[in-house]
Every structure is written in C-alpha cells, then in structure tokens.
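chain below, 452 aa
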Amino acid sequence: MVRYADLRDPDLFTEDERDWVSRRLLDLRAHMKSPPGIGIPSRTRNSSLIIGTWNLRDFDNNKYRHGPRRRESLLYIAEIISGFDVCAIQEVNENLDPLRKVMEILGPQWDFIATDVTVGSSGNRERMAFVFDRSKVHFQNVAGEVVLPKHALLPDEQQFARTPFLVRFQAGWFHFTLCTVHIYFGSDEKNSDRFQRRVAEIKHIAEEMARRADREDENYILLGDFNIGNKMGATMDALTSAGFQLPPELFPSNVLGDKYYDQIAFRTRKDKVTFINAGAFNFTKSLYLPEHYDHYAPVLPERHRELKENGTPKSRSEDKDYYLSRWRTWQISDHLPLWVELAIDFSDEHLQHNLSAAAQQEGKPAQLEVVEEEDGTISTLVPPASDHAEVKRRRKRKSPHIPGKEKEGTARVDGKLTLGLAWKIFWFVATGKAEKVRKMREEKAKQEKESP
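prediction:
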C-alpha cells in the first residue's frame, strides 16, 4: 500500500493542495481498478504475477527545463507502480534521489536494482532499473549488463547505445530472468544508417537472449522501450524473428496512442507461461486532464510559453496545447506503462504430473513407512527406485524413553512444592538418610544380579 505521509506535512502541501492531490489520487485509484483493458488487475498473493515496463521520461533530470516534477507527480508515479509486482523502468537519470523518493512513498517492502549510468552521446547518461515488491518477487542474486561478444557486435563493432540490463527473479513457482532495454532510436527514415542501427540493436539483443534461454533452459522475458513504430515492419520483425512470443493483443504505448514503442516478449520453457491479461494503462484519463489546465497554468514554466506583458498567455489555446502535449509528459511521461499478468501457481500441474493410470488401476494398499523392532527401536522405510521392496534406512529412531521401576516413588515434579515439603526434603538429605537409601538400593540390585 502506498504511503501518503507527505500529504500530511504542512511544509510540503497546503490545505488546498492536499485536497487537490487527494482527489486526484482517488480518481487515479478508481481508474486503476477499472476492468482490464482500461485499468490494471488487482494483485494477488500467490496465483498471478503482474509485470510492468515504463519509460519514465528523463526521470528526473530537468535538463530541458519543463520541470522539475512536482511532489504530487511522484505520488502519482508511485501509485501506478504499486499496481505491478515488478516493473522495469527506463530513462532513470544519474541522480537517484527522485527514484529513492518514489521508493519511500511505495513503502519498506519495495526495493530497486539499477544500472550505472550509460556514457556516450547516445547513452544520455541514463540508468535502467527494476522496482519490485520483495514480499512477492524475490531477487535471485543474479544481475548484469549485457555486453555482446566480439562475433556478435553491431555494425562498425559497436555495443548497444544503452546497455541492456538483466536480473533473475522468482515469484511463486515461476523462475524468470527479466532483461530490460532502451533501444537506440536514430531515425524513422527506413534507408538511413541510424534506422538500420535501431533494427540491428533489437535483432542482436533478441538473438542473444534467445541463445541464453535455450542454453540454460530458463524463462527469459525481454521488455522495455524498443522504439518499435508499428505492429508490422522491420523493428517488430527483428524482435519476433528470434522466436520471442508476444501477448495475444498488442497495445500502443505512447500518450498519443499511435506507436508500439514498448513491448514485453517471452522466450520460455515449454508450457511455463500462461497469459491472463495484458494492457497499457493510460494515466492521462485521470491525471493532468484538459479541464485541469486552469489549475496548473500559474506554475507552467514561462520560458516555454508565449505571454503578454501582464503574464497572461497570448493564445490560451496554444498555451493549453503546451500544457497537454509537452508539460504534462515531463510531469509523468510521454509513454504509458505496459503490463502483462501471468499465472505463477503451478500446484495443480505439479500434482497432475505425478498421476499414474497404471497405479490407479492396480490399486495397491498404502506403503509401510515405519516398523518397530524387537528391541523397541523404530526404523523408517523407503521404497527403492528400482522396485517396490522395502529397504531399511541405516539410521534408526530410538523409541521413547520410559523410566525404570527403580524410579518409582520419587517426588512428582508436577506436585506443588510447599514450605513443609521443602523442609522434609532438606532434612532427609541433611541427616544422611538419602545416602543410606541410595546404598540400600545399590546393595539390593547387586544381590538380585548375583542370585541364580
């Protein structure tokens, strides 16, 4: 559950702002609870796993001076991420403080793993990260950035512009490796070298992950911002030609709703993935709405607006267009979070795998598990792998200890120890009577042993 402690801090939110943000959060939460296709399914404890991927536009560098993100925006981002069990995030910037703030809002059961910054003109000093609920998703101690071997380098012996990042997790019965990417964009001109590099990056990472999945016989999920323009074409073919499986239905993942930049693709062990649902969550239907323009107009950055001398917009329609098409995308993102829900409880399948028609037909009685020997010891029995004969384990369990007859007549440990009884015991020992009784018993035992 997301923590809203900041909303109660008068140094962070005025009463009016607390009211405004609380109403927006209520709208957002109601939106998220809408049926799949509009909202996000409710998370379960054991039966399913919701995996998300989200390009959080330039989070949160503010080098283009459209921000920085408002405190309320961090609350909205945390609320949306809380709808997933694990979420891959792209475009996390060098300063991790904004992400740490989101983690603080999410609560102590949440954690993240991030890469170092990617250097170079194309890398943009970005990080990639996985945010996950530790109560549901368990880090399996394997993480790394993917570096191509020399024989598989991109044209001109290049590595990826932004290094893909893979981490191994487990949720329920499901062991899986997530590899997140932010593919080089370059150009939309199909014949250009920059477009061909985009295709090559998608093709190379898909083939490399496919090789690993086959070699290790493990479940690999490749997800993130592939900069895929549409359902058909060279960029999508580069992903699917390596044998990666996509959800049954694909969704546009940009705010405008006309591009398929983000994808979640699977190369898994046979019958190990069962799709339940998939979708893209359009937060613009509940946050930073067109009718909210008047509320936010006073805080829009002047450097990006056409204003009169008195500070009012020269054109209200153009100013509103800036608010909708640009400013709000720097507050949340120009990408929609994409998600899939998978089944992870394979209990029935595991039990059904043990069924035997022949055993059911034969109907043998229950196997013997333990046997008591003549000396009172108890042996545990196990059936060997080759036949049904019973074999005793070398290690025997001892039977329960029973006090001998010579112990009869001693004081009951569960009796109430009164002051009078304590004095009698003390006097019995102090006068030597206890020692005399002990010697008498030893002598009697010796005589019984020597008698024929």
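DSSP finds eleven helices and 14 strands in the chain. The first strand starts at residue 48 and ends at 59.
thats it, cya
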